[in-house]
Amino acid sequence: MRAIVYQSPGNVTLQDVAPPQLQHPGDALVRVELAGICGTDLHVIAGDFAGIRPGAIIGHEFVGEIMAIGGAVTRFKVGNRVMSSDFTACGHCHWCDRGDHWECQERAFFGTGTSFGPALHGAQAEIVRVPHADTTLGLLPKGCSDEAAILLGDNLATGWAAIERGALLPGEIVAVIGGGSVGQLASLSAQAAGAGAVVIIEPSESRRTFARANGSLTVSPDEARTFIDSLTDGEGVDLVVEAVGAAATLTAAFDLVRKRGRIISVGAHATQNWSFPLAKSFANELTLGFAIGDSIRLRPRLLSLITTGILDPAVVVDRRTGFAGAAQAYADLKAQKVMKAVIDPRL
């Protein structure tokens, strides 16, 4: 089968590789019909995560059709069209029972090597093996497009997790640092949850234009503090969502939030250490948190928002390509020429 394979930092290639096989009774094999390229994948191919090794199939967002199941799979049958979380979880441990699937001891993150658990080949391939299929997969319902389902598996779940973790109250003002797909979907999530206003802070004019067309206020980073002061009478916003995954943008969040406000970071951080503004945080009673999207837990709620038309995450998809165009899509995403690209292995 064909797959996008990591070779070395900055280098991925399309290769013919052996197709996966069922390894455990809870496995399923899914014929991939659409796979996403995520900002986290840029970190992966850059070599930012130590666990990635040459030969790894990358990608963690996909929808497709089940082509084989293990003997312990009970929720699905061959021929079902399914969506997936970007990571696996057993579904029956202490953490899974609490809805904290990311903390599951059997977690594996598709396409990121051993960075976040046991190595598991990714989904930018014609076929992907899915462990713990009964938990990891969900049926693709009517009213949810393939693009929306891919985004629910990671980017939308992450954006919604930021708003959920930030305990947003109706009418509160939110600032989102970063206008990529996660930042845009965090903004749409905040709007759906009743935010009084959402400000996306983003250097790219094209991404600011997109955000304005989808209900956000926008500002460039160098004008952010002045703009937010004018919007909040100098107090700062109630909630800042950091959606870039960089130490500099996380530091910048502390200059935008009001006293007793909240900062939630959902960017994929690879830096090991960061200088925390401790005295300021104590004096202003600030709350700092981190969140990772849990599609397994959030899937029912987010599907309801999608199928009723309240939220359409697919608006961020602006490139659809086959395997032949994947390398260019990666380059264009890095250069911010596209916001969200998806790969159709059938093209």
TrEMBL record:
<keyword id="KW-0479">Metal-binding</keyword>
<comment type="similarity">
    <text>Belongs to the zinc-containing alcohol dehydrogenase family.</text>
</comment>
<dbReference type="Pfam" id="PF00107">
    <property type="entry name" value="ADH_zinc_N"/>
</dbReference>
<keyword id="KW-0560">Oxidoreductase</keyword>
<protein>
    <submittedName>
        <fullName>Alcohol dehydrogenase</fullName>
    </submittedName>
</protein>
<dbReference type="InterPro" id="IPR013154">
    <property type="entry name" value="ADH-like_N"/>
</dbReference>
<dbReference type="InterPro" id="IPR036291">
    <property type="entry name" value="NAD(P)-bd_dom_sf"/>
</dbReference>
<dbReference type="GO" id="GO:0016616">
    <property type="term" value="F:oxidoreductase activity, acting on the CH-OH group of donors, NAD or NADP as acceptor"/>
</dbReference>
<dbReference type="InterPro" id="IPR013149">
    <property type="entry name" value="ADH-like_C"/>
</dbReference>
<dbReference type="GO" id="GO:0008270">
    <property type="term" value="F:zinc ion binding"/>
</dbReference>
<keyword id="KW-0862">Zinc</keyword>
<dbReference type="InterPro" id="IPR002328">
    <property type="entry name" value="ADH_Zn_CS"/>
</dbReference>
<feature type="domain" description="Enoyl reductase (ER)">
    <location>
        <begin position="7"/>
        <end position="343"/>
    </location>
</feature>
<dbReference type="InterPro" id="IPR020843">
    <property type="entry name" value="ER"/>
</dbReference>
<dbReference type="InterPro" id="IPR011032">
    <property type="entry name" value="GroES-like_sf"/>
</dbReference>
<dbReference type="Pfam" id="PF08240">
    <property type="entry name" value="ADH_N"/>
</dbReference>
